[in-house]
Design goal:
Blueprint lengths: L1 E5 L4 H17 L4 E7 L3 H5 L6 E5 L8 H11 L3 E4 L4 H9 L4 E5 L15 E3 L7 H9 L17
Parallel strand pairs: 1-2, 1-4, 2-3, 4-5, 5-6
């Protein structure tokens, strides 16, 4: 299985996504797991064990860089793209990856509700949950164990 994690930034939000990525690696040990990230945060994602590739987007390059990034994503033929960010930009990139399944949060918990139209599947998340629990629930769509007692950080 090939999985694309989409969490472009910011620093704290990237750190909050690490337990979900650890759960993916633990639950799908032979999967290829790639992370699409803003190049400003590449060094943080470099510290996360279990990631096969880091694909960067340069926010200052604006739209001129997108064709290169999208070509790279499409070459991988991902089985699933998980949008942990919930913004229009991240949803468009997840969908542009060509993944067979593009998965994001349900419209009512998205930061930008318009992002929902780019997902094939939505994960309903109860309001008031910590962002780590929300991210674990999103990863759970792929059928892995995401119980809170099992997660731990995969930092070197």
């Amino acid at each position: 299985m090939k999985i694309l994690v989409v969490r472009l930034g910011a620093l704290g939000d990237i750190v909050h996504t690490v337990p979900a990525v650890a759960a993916l690696r633990r639950g799908l040990p032979s999967a290829q797991i790639d992370w699409l990230v803003d190049e400003r945060y590449r060094e943080v994602v470099d510290l996360v064990r279990g990631i096969d590739a880091r694909i960067t987007v340069n926010p200052s390059a604006k739209w001129r860089e997108l064709p290169r990034v999208i070509r790279r994503l499409r070459q991988e033929r991902y089985d699933a793209a998980l949008d942990f960010q919930g913004l229009l930009k991240s949803a468009v990139l997840a969908r542009s990856s060509g993944a067979a399944r593009v998965i994001g949060f349900s419209r009512d918990v998205l930061r930008e509700r318009a992002a929902a139209v780019f997902y094939h599947e939505h994960r309903d998340i109860p309001r008031g949950q910590h962002v780590i629990a929300k991210n674990l629930r999103l990863a759970g769509v792929l059928g892995i164990d995401v119980s809170m007692k099992n997660y731990h950080f995969y930092l070197e």
